[in-house]
Predict the 3D structure of the following.
Amino acid sequence: MSTATVALESNAVFVGIEYLAIFVWGLSGGLSAVRKGFDLFSILMCGWITALGGGLVRDTLLGDLPPVGITDKGYILTCLISGLVVAVAHPEVSRFKWTMVAIDALGLGLFAVNGTAKALAFGSSGMTAVFLGMATALAGGLFRDIMLGDVPMIIGDKHLYAVPSLVGCVLTVIVYKGVRANMVGMQAEMILDVVIVIVVFTLRVVSVACNLTLPGAVERRDAEIGRGEDGGKGE
């Protein structure tokens, strides 16, 4: 097991944030089901897949079976409680937009770092670890949106969401490489892990607060005029 994983799992603050993030992501998934008018089972299912779906993908691809998403009683109980809470208190939950955005951003950073670190601990290459870290952070919401027939948030949300997780995963790999090269010690790595989570958190929250988005496709008015002149046919 890599020291990055040990650093995260031995830090009570990170563990607390992780459970809080699972709870909030469970609320988010359950709330999406409530808004669709689904029953209690569907609410609980959406909460579970949102909070733990990314870990299921990561562990399955790593061969770490069965995944923690179906074996960790604490994780599963947290998801069930969040589903029950949102089934009753969904009007109140809907009002806490910024609280949920902030905690969601913390969870995004934590799961990006934790997922990448676990992949590296299992001997994955840096590139593979980045993909698995992003899967840990993003796949749960992707599964939820597909189940509900919505445009996935990682595509539909114009604010920075996938990009902060990518940054966090890449930085985690860089720190890991530094540890392997004996350039970074255990204590320094723990500090850098915290910094990476803060970076991901800041990118996500600032993008929502300041309406920051990535540019889209380049407008090509000359091409549109050309298509109009020849009836849309090529040469």
